[in-house]
Every structure is written in structure tokens, then in C-alpha cells.
Amino acid sequence: MTTSSTQAMTRMLQTHPHADRIGHQQALLECIDACFECAQVCTSCADACLAEPDLQMMVPCIRLNLDCADICMTTGRVVTRQTGPQADVLRAQLQACLAACRACGDECRKHAGHHQHCAVCAEACRRCEVACQALLAALAA
């Protein structure tokens, strides 16, 4: 998210009727930011992979990019909702996102030496993986 988006999300959480119950606000904000960024980067990486001359070799990467983008987008939306979250569902969604980011990042790293867009994607996936892990840890505390 851009700085203005992050500021808007911070204000939104602060003005939420359950603001007093929203714990771990920094971990939450970082996770939301990382999820939405990763979704956009993975979608763009899939598109860039489609333009590569060695398209057949890129099929697993494209698939993981698109799966990761969908999971990250959903995770960002789920963790944004603060009214009555189900802890088990929230943890499962964060774990799914973490796994998708790890798989996508690992695949993109394989291509990072030849395709700069894959290097950028691997970095975004790693950031999202770390943010999901941090929010999971904060929720467990």
C-alpha cells in the first residue's frame, strides 16, 4: 500500500467501533499491506512471465503466481475485517497465505537470474510470508 493507503487503514482501524479490541495493530497493518502488495506483484509477474519467450518453462511459475495472488488478496480482505473474527479461520487463512507465498517465492527465485520480474516477485512473496508469520505469532501471544 502507498503511504496514504497505510495512513487511511491506520485511521480506519483507530475509528473502528471495536478499536479497543483490535490488538497487534502494527502486525495487522503490515500483514494487510504485504498481502495486497504481494497480490498485485504476483499478478504482474504472471503477466510478465506470459511475455517471456520460454513460456512453457514458465507455466509452473505462472500458476503459482496466480494462486498466490488470489490467496494473498483473500487473506488481506479477511484480516482487515475486525468484527467477530473466528480465530481458527483467521489462523488457517494466514497459514495458507504463508504457504502460498513460500511456494511462489521459491519458484520465482529459480528464475530470478534470468527474469528480473521474478526477483521482484520473490521479494514481495518473502515480505508477505514474514508478515503473515508475524501476525500469526502476535495472535498466539
UniProtKB/TrEMBL annotation:
<dbReference type="InterPro" id="IPR044543">
    <property type="entry name" value="YHJQ-like"/>
</dbReference>
<dbReference type="InterPro" id="IPR005560">
    <property type="entry name" value="Csp_YhjQ"/>
</dbReference>
<protein>
    <submittedName>
        <fullName>Four-helix bundle copper-binding protein</fullName>
    </submittedName>
</protein>
<dbReference type="Pfam" id="PF03860">
    <property type="entry name" value="Csp"/>
</dbReference>
